[in-house]
Each structure stands twice: as C-alpha cells, then as structure tokens.
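Q: My labmate handed me this sequence with no annotations at all. I'd like to see what the chain might look like in three dimensions before we decide whether it's worth expressing. Could you predict it?
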Amino acid sequence: MQKILGFGVIALGVFLEVLWLGVCFGTVVIGIVLLIFAPRILFFPFNFFLVIGLAMIGTSGMKGGASFRYQSYSNAGHQAPPNFAQPQSSMSKYYEVLESNPTDSMEVIKKNYRRLIKEYHYDSIASKNLPEDMLKFAKKKTQDLNEAYEAIKKARG
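A: Here is what I predict for the chain of 157 residues:
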C-alpha cells in the first residue's frame, strides 16, 4: 500500500509540474526569466514530490537500493577522489589503468593485468563478432594495459 501511495505522490508531482510550467510559460517573459535566472524554481514541484514519493516507496524491497555505491576504477576501496585541479603523474595513470595502487605488491598488479588482458584482449573480443568500434576499443585498451604493466615493471626493477 505504501508503494502505491509513493507512486501516487510521484504522479501528483508530474501533474503539478506540468501545471506549473504552463503557468510560467503562459507568460513568456516570466518563463524565460525563470529559465535563465532560476531554473530550480521551474522544476521544484517535480523534484519535491519525487523525493517524497521515493521516500514513501522505500528501497528495502529493491535490489541494491540503499546499499548502492559508486564504484571507482581502482581496488583502493577508501581512496580519496582524484584531484582534477592538478594533473596526475604518469605512474599514477598506469596504476589506474591496471586498477591497482602504488602500495599493491607486484603479484597483485600482475593478477590485475592478466585479468584485464583476458577481458579486453583483441582476439577474445574479435571471436565474439562484436562491432568494429568495440574491436578498436579492445586494441587500444590492450595497448594501454601493456604499456602500463611494462612501465610499472620497469619502475619497480
């Protein structure tokens, strides 16, 4: 019953959003001014009722709901987000390509390299009759993986 009410609240939000946009754009000047200077005001009814409706529906019965987390491209787990203000060093890019950390042992890096090569190697992609774009991507990814692995091996001695 709670899920039905939640969907009802979301539907009410959609209805009120349509009415609100009709009012705002009924007078073109007000609609344009709001769109330029305060777009959040235009979509407030929908966002407001969407949040309330989703809270009423809950995520307990949905697979992966509340426990969903964004995955990073490394195995770091609790690694700080990259700082995009400063360029990354080439070695850190190599570790990122191999989904590893500078603190990982060479065995872990080798395991990641083998797993990724197996997944992205050109021959394994070509045997699946995938489009040409995917084959180009696989070739580039394989080259990147090989370059990263060789650079890390060389840096570690």
